[in-house]
């Protein structure tokens, strides 16, 4: 385990095992919502802390772990310590009450999912509550601990697609841990077969599920029909409500009873679906935003929160654009396709239908989400443009958030262009500072989906430095601005020839005439992001991208700039003269 010299003792759960045979262990605990799995996790955490163990707890939200900590504290207050029967006492020393201490050195502490991935303090045990709500890459990182338990909900809102049930289970099967699976079938907070539990399950749609896979497995863009579904229709048809809500649950890491109420009652929400032979196969939840009066926009600009206006709020309060609340837009709150019919273009078909419906009725379509390379590619392929990338990670997913627009009117186009330019102007510095640890492909995808032109106002001196690095003995540090501008010009707007074929290249012309330079490879683009824009050390970039050494990495960087000189240096007399000196 990662604890190294900290502990010579075996991992928890490895009882009666001699030291030479110590093994890492993983436990998966499944239960329906409300059965008491968080209470069970708390009892386990308290017991382990009473034995002197260091227990690290993580969950999508600190609130998810409240029951766990309450049960752990109760047990620590009532149970004797393992080394002699003394009463173990629990204290909450952290300001947020996130650490419980037991006599004998044990403790139970909380860390957000992204922070917990680094296993701070080398814990003996990691307990992951609502595990299915977390990305697979975070779940995999917890397997570096010697003992880990994943608590997850089988039915009851905490779905997140099939990441946990399929992809992560495959990783569990292949890992070195001894894996034990447990199902909590008898409730802790209810008596067996308690009618209250049954009523709550049905009333809150805790068991909502999309249609059976066989009913939609043949769905394709040509076989589906698009339609709007009103709240009245959902309230009158429980089967339809369950199908729609079941798909929406799978599209998001955390769903609460309030979401069901909003689906039925919120005046600014719209539901649109694709149906295959009468069965819902894709669903989108839209929120109407913007169209705000001057007084509301002023209040928002000065810090007031206006419910139901997520995108205008970010652009007004954070990005200081008081006019951003004027245009009317529809934000894609959630979009989901049945797992049996994914990767067939149904999501794109649904977005195209939504665009056609609201073109003329709104100024833009928008979306905000935790950025991954796959999602950035999907939204870009559907015409959405990057206008913002957050500089702090989401505590639950560990991802940076991307905001994207698809303009529908002149007002929407003006809003998108304005923020696209501002994004272009700030992203270079952000990548070198707050976004320095951003995933290389996330950065590539976000930049490719920005349509703002990058002015290449390089001086003759800067061009000489660039040519010196590309073809001669020059040094990158002599004029770093020039290299950053060229990198942004190559990466912003999808100009690279290796971009998705369905990107709108006609809207991405640079302000400098492009020559016939060799297209950059994806690896070279990652090199530009990591070494030039994020200013990471060459040895770190070399290791991440598979170069044999830092020297080889820098040689590859020079080769990449050869292509950019060919592409952007056409008809520059100073540049051509400099190239001739090196035979370039």
From TrEMBL:
Pfam families: GNAT_acetyltr_2, NAT10_TcmA_helicase. Its EC number is 2.3.1.193. Residues 88-99 have a biased composition (Low complexity). One of its GO terms (biological process) is tRNA processing. GO terms for molecular function: acyltransferase activity; ATP binding. It catalyses: a cytidine in mRNA + acetyl-CoA + ATP + H2O = an N(4)-acetylcytidine in mRNA + ADP + phosphate + CoA + H(+); a cytidine in RNA + acetyl-CoA + ATP + H2O = an N(4)-acetylcytidine in RNA + ADP + phosphate + CoA + H(+); a cytidine in tRNA + acetyl-CoA + ATP + H2O = an N(4)-acetylcytidine in tRNA + ADP + phosphate + CoA + H(+). InterPro entries: Acyl_CoA_acyltransferase, GNAT_dom, P-loop_NTPase, TcmA/NAT10_helicase, TmcA/NAT10/Kre33, TmcA_C_sf, tRNA_Cytidine_AcTrnsfr. Residues 80-99 are annotated as: Disordered. Coiled coil: none annotated. Keywords: Acyltransferase, ATP-binding, Nucleotide-binding, Transferase, tRNA processing. Residues 224-409 form the N-acetyltransferase domain. This is tRNA(Met) cytidine acetyltransferase TmcA. It comes from Halobellus litoreus. The gene is tmcA.
